[in-house]
Batch of 2 targets.
Target 1
Amino acid sequence: MKQLLILSGKGGTGKTTIASAFIKLSKAKAYADCDVDAPNLHLITEQSSAPKRTDYYGLPKAEINTELCIQCDRCRQNCRFDSISVDKKYKVNPFACEGCGVCQAICPVEAISLKPAVAGELMLHAKEGKVFSTAQLKMGSGTSGMLVTEVKKQMKSATAPTHLAIIDGSPGIGCPVIASLSGADMVLMVAEPSISGIHDMERIINTAAKFGTKTAICINKFDTNIENTKKIEEFCKKQGLAFMGKIPFDAGAIKAINNGQTIVDINCASGIAVKVVFNKTIKLLFEEYPVLHSNDALHI
Amino acid sequence: MKIAVLSGKGGTGKTLVSVNLAAAAKTSTYIDCDIEEPNGHLFFKPENTQEEEITINIPKVDNELCNGCRKCVDFCKFNALAYIKEKLIVFEEVCHSCGGCILFCPEEALTEREKVIGKVQKGTSDQVTVYTGILNTGEASGIPMIKKLLHENTPPSNKLTFIDCPPGSACMVMDSIKDADYCILVAEPTIFGVHNLNMVYELVKLFNKSFGVVLNKCVEGDNPAERFCVEKNIKILSRLPFDSELGILNSNAKIAVRENEKYQALFSSLLEIVQEEVQHETTSHS
Ligand code: SF4
Ligand code: SF4
Ligand code: SF4
Ligand code: SF4
């Protein structure tokens, strides 16, 4: 199975809009949303049934048994994350606690225990041979990288052999992005023609380069700033990055999305442009490995 | 007065709003807490910048003293230590600097050393003091940097401070809004926008913050984000239009209020509304 990961250095570039169009065009049998902090893909991909939900446990949190506590203050003094406070009684702030276990180990009367804590929820939609894996991190749970790994694992374990998986990546450059990169065969960067968009794009390309992942670029809303669009195209040439095409700003896209549709479901300018980007991307993804089967309707 | 600007996701106009409000306020402080992708400095282009490295403490082993008991390895909840070939190895990237291994090593073989995770820059742009935190690529947690940005550089309380928060609703955002007097939530007019807005809405409610919404990129027709605000009885502070002039200024990293009087007026009136809201909150709570 080939994994195509769609990334953007920044949110709001239309990554999910493009991912959903790709899913539609490729008739992908496997796809996932790795933006576990703010998943959106489920809003515009059809799900015919309720998902299978699984609690996701992150690191445990400390809990103080105030009956046993002798108020020696050792736990508070040694917690590096300022998670323990005292207001008559000692207590742990679960949002700040990292579950490191220092307080538990240092407490002289064993008043502290580490309790498993639900940090999010995994959702799996599987029907008619199609698998969609997604998750939602609970507010204030830090470990999104680990949940991203779970989302991908869940997708793989539920998928019958198929040749293509499309993954909507996480925004940013931090640990969730690194988790979504691992195992990806190719990255499609969705860039936005703004100074800050270019800045963020450069950072993410550096990250992808560290993993040695094949990287290609497309520009969304290219006509909102033609000059910056040119800059990105030149940047691609200079860096030897494959350029997949340009998609215009399109009020029709907003309408489609607000109706829960993808941009290729309606007749609109961005939908037409995204098809070109799609064809090129899929071609590049499978270039060295022509494993397409005739019954998989890919529009190449 | 501290005003935090947040949105459920990047790209909604959080930086546009906070940068232009800070510029409209003239004398103010702007703190960019979006440390994974700080963009505010691209707009302000601050001068006279000073830089400070931000470090965390990670363990360092003295192999002469270490006897291989592996107590530290067993303790570490993050699997940041391993004892291989009669040597203790520290995996820096996953160490959370909890200090536990050092505390509990019976041979006192572990000490701390500083590791740089990024830097904080301070500079000025007209009368705006600009703070930027920049986290190195690949670092797991930026919390120490957010703490540094918000708590050690505390400007005088009578001055207006704008905090450009990280996107999302995770722990770094929580740290960014903890001391804010008011929160501005920026939302886009799509169903994605509503989904993201709902997350930060839950967050500010949890923290009991007073807040209002700025609707960004408004176009003709139905605005699901506006409907959400009406349903939940949330104060709409301003409606910024989707206009290509503002779009071009913004995508060229220009500060709209410094380029065009129209936007000067737009953001000044937003600033007034926000200040009134804060005043109102403080009087009604006292
Ligand atoms: S487990 Fe660690 S972070 Fe949590 S309260 Fe104890 S010492 Fe602090
Ligand atoms: S270390 Fe244990 S006994 Fe001491 S204050 Fe903390 S919980 Fe109480
Ligand atoms: S606890 Fe101390 S002595 Fe034991 S393995 Fe770790 S560093 Fe070595
Ligand atoms: S400081 Fe804490 S996280 Fe780092 S190696 Fe030691 S025990 Fe592990």
Target 2
Amino acid sequence: MSVSAHEAAKPSKGFRIDLKTAGPLLALILLVVLGYSLNPAFLNEGNITNILTRSAFIGIIAVGATFVITAGGIDLSVGSMAAFIAGVMIIIMNGAVGAMGASVWTVLLGIGCSLILGIGAGFINGFLTTKAKIEAFIVTLGTMGIYRSLVTYFADGGTLSLNNAAREIYRPVYYDSFLRIPFPVWVFIFVAILGWVLMNRTAFGRYCMAIGSNEHVARYSAIKVDRVRTATYILQGLCVSLATIIYVPRLGSASSATGVLWELEAIAAVIIGGTMLKGGFGRIGGTVIGALILTSIGNILNLTEIISNYLNGAVQGVIIIAAVYLQRGSLRGRRKKAD
Amino acid sequence: MSLKAIALGLLVTSALAGAAVAQDKIKIGVSIPAATHGFMGGLNWHAAEAEKRLEAAHPNIDIIIVTADGPADQASDLEDLVSVHQIQALVVLPFESEPLTEPVRAVKQTGAFITVVDRGLTDETIQDVYVSGNNTEMGVNSAEYMKTRLGDGDNIVILRGIPTVLDTERFDAFMGAIEGTGINVLDNKFANWNRDDGFEVMQDFLSRFPDIKGVWAQDDDITLGVVEAIKQAGRESEMFVVGGAGMKEIVKGVMDGNALVPVDVLYPPAQIATAMDVTVAHFTSNGPVGGTYILGSPLITQENAAQFYFPDSPF
């Protein structure tokens, strides 16, 4: 506790940032070298684009998760929430097509609903955690089950599919690009930059770190702990909503299989990136790299025949642990210096 | 506490009332996995449809459907079916074979008639009837179709399901059937019977292999992801995809003459209805019904697609 409090009191600057970035970045570079040596197709423009676009979903959600975890919370509901929002968006857009035909407005209506649902769902998680004083783990475990069953119920156990005409209008949001960079990647970049500014250059970011390292001290320092905490969950909900907005046009469908285990992937991306699970210290840049690492592992395993299919999970596990170890290595160095 | 007492009271009263009314009804329990993915959603729908149909046709039959989220949950369901409903017959699609063998044996020991569906138990002597789709035939029929379209030196890729015995059966049968044809399998990867994984795995196959003539996606959910990835790469004209199961969207596409997904191979979610029919027949038929019923996995083509199309089913 005292160590993280110490870190929170001194925002890292200059050379320290480089030191802490080195771990995850090094892991990513090693992974890229490994990928290229296993199959040169890894560095094709098409493949790089695929990796970046796939990373966008988990990456955007993980940026939100960085705030929640930094403030000492956890959100297990994000995967189910994404499936739920995607399902409701599709139902609403299909309804709108029936009522007023397929147009850009139909899609905008869906997007608007997604934002409202995301913010609302985040608020519920935050409110129950702070006002009802229920452990975040339990609250979000509960909402995780609720959203997952609701989407299954709405889909009648099958799949909700977006109306074809609406889909044609919505499709470019995932598949088109600007300056040869696909739109989902732009959204990811945008969210990451905003997240970085919010975390490192605003009072809100400092409050998150302070609350995560010592809630009582933060309270005595006149920080409105409950309000900041709730805000982190709302931010998380907003990120889930953005990820869903770019996810729906990809396959135009949602089912109970949508977003399964995204919560764990998002948390893994955050931790690989150097944020501490117990809170008090958050790194948005690291989270972005963490998301890239996770997606690259899956991609590399698909690009090679060397590793048995049955061992994919094991390889992923080893790489995740190694990435965090590299990052912890640099942390330990810093702790010694602090002593 | 009082709430609990009320609930208990209600339960007991309703159980007694139910028992009094339905004294001479034959109770059949149906225990299946919850609708957590497309195929099971379809299976749940067909079970509910069969319940309506059978209860309407046979007033003395009472069917109770319960759905479980996991093997442990399903074992509890079985206990409830015996203790609360006192069933005379059980139709069960076991979540997993090993953990459910003993719970089903316990139901058998109460004297109930046992019908096992799809995933078998490890002790086959427990079941009176076994109803299943045909994984081997599914693999073989997919391969046979590939052979009509492809020949020596043509490249295909395979997207598999989840590492399970069922998947291995399909895969081994497929590989056995294309042996010696010269069709070249570039690689196979798991796509977890899931659209998103189908999309990503296919994207990676497409960036890796410039020449692909055929894709065996094995499952219709995977197929939908695969199709999107192929469209994204603009390579629709180079290849075709063979899925499986009989999802309504895919079957509709086959009916309409979709060139990218020209056929499908059946693995019917309606098999639960067959199992329920056979179980009811045990009480109503004058002939023996015990034994093994393996349903075919025919190729769904444009000509016969209409008979496999259920527009109301969620799957």
